[in-house]
Design a protein that fits this description.
Layout: E1 15-19, H1 39-48, E2 53-57, E3 62-67, H2 71-78, E4 85-88, E5 91-94, E6 118-121, E7 125-128, H3 135-148, E8 162-163, E9 170-174, E10 177-183, H4 184-187, E11 204-209, H5 221-231, E12 237-240, E13 245-250, H6 254-268
Parallel strand pairs: 6-8
Antiparallel strand pairs: 1-3, 2-3, 4-5, 6-11, 7-10, 9-10, 11-13, 12-13
Helix pairs in contact: 1-2, 1-5, 5-6
Length: about 270
């Protein structure tokens, strides 16, 4: 419904959404949340089969976006570990490898993926949700933040490991569920009794991936972050955007995360 415009840039590919539903066999004592939970079983195998993914973590769950043309490879890659269903007219219908075997292409060997630089801004972030019936009460504040909060001038030193702050606000509305990511300073502008967060009220620090816009064809960008964090059992939420990728990790673990990622980059040289 959006009219064509010189101001709107649209990626060529059409993307499909995968959501991973647990069957209750999660190992006991597994505390990691967010993208870390599905790193080994979904993200790493897709990266090994050269499937580019976009990642969207929300307050409620995680979604993986894959290009429509990659669906045969995705199904063949994941069918060994998952029961796969597609939604047809609101019903979940089982999918078998036979349904897409004609389109399956075995992955070709590829060079090791580029390990992109990571930056950690100093501001702290909150992962929140809002009850849909209270959304009108904060609508004007949402509009103000989305459309009238101007980004600070971008520092030319894009290669630095630490930024003073980064302007980041994410709002998603998926099947009636609302998820918001905002920094702690922006949160102060909203009525505290309407924003819902976890009982611990924890704050998150961000790791931004990429010194230049990443594009959509490269594989293994999400795995670059998710795999080492999964190995260390560190929770993370991950949000891919048009230009960059962003991982949110618990505030108290940011130093360990930066160290892990720097060690990974150094070992790949």
């Amino acid at each position: 419904e959006l009219p064509p415009s010189e101001f709107m840039q649209v990626a060529d590919s059409t993307w499909l959404v995968l959501s991973v539903v647990s069957n209750g066999r999660e190992p006991p004592g597994c505390q990691a949340t967010g993208v870390t939970k599905i790193a080994r079983s979904v993200i790493a195998p897709l990266a090994e089969h050269h499937v580019s993914v976009l990642m969207l973590s929300t307050y409620q769950t995680d979604f993986i976006l894959v290009r429509e043309r990659d669906l045969p490879v995705v199904i063949h890659t994941l069918a060994g570990e998952f029961d796969i269903y597609k939604e047809e007219s609101g019903e979940c219908v089982p999918v078998t490898c036979d349904d897409v075997s004609n389109g399956f292409l075995k992955p070709k060997p590829a060079a090791s993926p580029t390990l992109h630089p990571v930056q950690s801004p100093q501001n702290r972030f909150c992962v929140l949700t809002v009850a849909p019936d209270t959304l009108p009460a904060i609508a004007t504040m949402l509009i103000d933040v989305l459309f009238y909060s101007h980004s600070p001038p971008w520092d030319a030193a894009t290669g630095s490991q630490d930024l003073d702050s980064i302007t980041f606000f994410s709002f998603s509305l998926i099947e009636g569920y609302i998820s918001i990511v905002m920094d702690a300073e922006t949160q102060k502008r909203f009525p505290s009794d309407l924003l819902l967060t976890s009982s611990t009220g924890e704050l998150w620090r961000m790791v931004r991936i990429g010194g230049q816009p990443l594009g959509f064809d490269e594989c293994g960008i999400v795995a670059q972050i998710a795999e080492p964090l999964a190995a260390a059992d560190i929770s993370a939420y991950y949000i891919s955007t048009f230009n960059f990728d962003h991982a949110l990790v618990p505030e108290e673990g940011i130093a360990e995360v930066i160290q892990l990622l720097q060690q990974r980059q150094e070992s790949s040289r």
